[in-house]
């Protein structure tokens, strides 16, 4: 009888622990994922589905069956992601452009790691995805403003040089005449 109570308490504790982690997974503001090395989603949280324009994680898993070709704007980014995972077993701040379900392109930053079994067989990749589209747009806007500022400074410098030359020639003539 005592053994049954102990086992039941362990099961209840494990269930509470799982519910706690499930809550974190479901309510995280960043996208969380698990994928196979060949590009299939195993798990995704609601934030990832929303970022990619899907109604639910289940829809994302069902419809995104080839990450390399369906998600990445440049399919070579997935190849590079896998290469880095094989080499370093993780990626950090891996930035790429991806397609949302509606065809719109967004920027993402991925942080992920490779998960292996006890006999060192690759099981899956897991990690976080952050939509960085606004940050990329702000950086592009700043670059544009700086480029325009640079052009303005070059025009101003050219104007000052040209104006100086235009005034110098008649003033030199006047100075020569006055000396004579």
Care to give the gist of this entry?
The chain is an alpha+beta fold and 180 residues long.
- Secondary structure class reads alpha+beta
Q: Helix tally?
A: 6
Termini Cα gap:
126 Å
- Please bin the fraction of helical residues: 55-70%
One letter per element, helices H and strands E, the order comes to: HEEHHHHEEEH
Strand order of the largest sheet: 2-1-5-4-3
Largest sheet: 5 strands, antiparallel
Q: What oligomeric arrangement do these chains adopt?
A: single chain
Question: What fraction of residues sit in β-strands?
Answer: 15-25%
How many structural domains in the coordinates? 2
CATH homologous superfamily (4th level) name of the largest domain: PAS domain
The gyration radius over C-alpha positions equals 30 Å
At CATH level 3, the topology of the largest domain is Beta-Lactamase
Mean pLDDT comes to 88
**Secondary structure tally: strands:** 5
Give the low-confidence spans. Answer: none
CATH architecture of the largest domain: 2-Layer Sandwich
